[in-house]
Amino acid sequence: MKYFGFIFLFLCVCVSTHAQQDTITMDIAVSTDKTLPIGVVNFELDDSNWSKLEEPPHKTLTRDFNLSGRFSAIELEQYNLLTLSRAQARHYVTGTLTMSEGQAKLECKLHATTSREMVKGFIYTSSVEHVRTSLHKCTDNVVHHLWGVQGFASTQMAWVSRINGKKQIVIGDYDGFRRKQVTTHNSINFFPAWSPDNSKIYFTSLRNGKPQIFERSLAGNTDRQLFPQIDQSFNPSANPKDGTLLFSIMGPSGADIWFGNPQTGNAHRLIYTTSLEVSPAWSPQGTAFLFTSDRGGQPQIYMALRDGSDIQRVSFFGRYNESAVWSPDGERIAYCSMDGGKLNIYTSGIDGNDVQKLTFEGNNESPTWSPDGMSIAFSSDRSGSPQIYIMRRDGSGATRITHTGENSSPVWSNLINKGVP
Q1: CA–CA separation, 192 vs 204, rounded Å?
Q2: Backbone torsions φ then ψ of 15, nearest 5 degrees
């Protein structure tokens, strides 16, 4: 399996291509979440040199709105009441971009469609290189004004990218733009995880010939090995409340879930079995976690309390389920399931009911929720090579956000700013 790689190759033996009788009902995902139509009129740019912009401002806003899971954007060269009315768009956005003394001034205006009156205006000043940051802030402000919640356009994504033949950790804007390479060691680096404040990336590296967990502060350029007293550790997950880590270690009898403090270096085992226990993922409140185990003979998803007690099976539909992650509201999980010889993304309630299949093309892996739970990013080889996509939480609107090389294992950053950006 691509996600498990060399460590979990033996899990392939557990997969059966024959259908299994299950009592859990499954729904095929269709678009059920209502989105709000919104117009995006081409921005006016002055005669300055804007060649450093990756794309016209209205293209960035349109993508932000569509990926938000809350809007359906209507692109317009100029205001058109008939087009906006037919689309039932009650609002539209216009803007201008001007240059003064080397600083870019971005003005975004939210208008009421019928009256054309400005509902809200936003002004941002930055370098040309950071105009995209200002546009993401504009999107988040519009989301906050019309929905009353914090948007995620200003968040980031970490993922694994093959660079010069080696897997490296990279970060970028949530939509795939402005990519920055984090790891540079000439080895395999994978399983990225964000610290709660987004200041650090935890990851697994084979630089010493075996899987070990490292920490990289994004303000620096050096890596720190965590838990060196443990021989083989991998797949870290950071508690969103206190920053402690869950991870797996390889032992003589399989893999176990461990708990560790990256500050003190102390670590201890949580689950004692002879089975394979991998892919830990904290709950939003840090009081419980999900993990994958083959204790029943085949990989399934289980849940345990913070101390490893009260273990309960969560997945029941299908014979191969793994890599589960909790939605931000704690009500649902997203995970990978094998069906018809392919891996696909599913969601279900935390009790295993209300199973919904979200993907149908190629192999689809590594789901990660947007900070508001409206969207899900994942990797897929549907285009031939593994790339990162974002879809709405109901599986609709899948959009590819990486376009070169091979990219996998996306992890969304945390939402730090709870107010208006």
Answers
A1: 7
A2: -80, 130
Q: Residue 58 class from Cβ within 10 Å (0-12 exposed, 13-18 middle, 19+ buried)?
A: buried
**For residues 94 and 112, what is the distance between their CA atoms, to the nearest angstrom?**
11
Q: Are 79 and 47 in contact (CB under 8 A)?
A: no
Q: Record the pTM.
A: 0.91
Of 102, 174, 161, the closest CA to residue 133 belongs to: 174
Q: Which residues of the chain have pLDDT under 50?
A: 1-32, 419-421
Find, among 331, 393, 366, 336, the residue nearest to 31 by Cα: 393
Q: 204-221 pLDDT, tens per residue?
A: 999 999 999 999 999 999
Q: Tell me how far apart the alpha carbons of residues 349 and 330 are, in angstroms, rounded to a whole number.
A: 9
* Dist. CA 77–CA 261, nearest whole Å: 54
Copy the structure tokens of residue 9: 């190759």
How far apart, in whole angstroms, are the C-alpha atoms of residue 81 and residue 419? 32
Cα 136 from chain centroid? 17
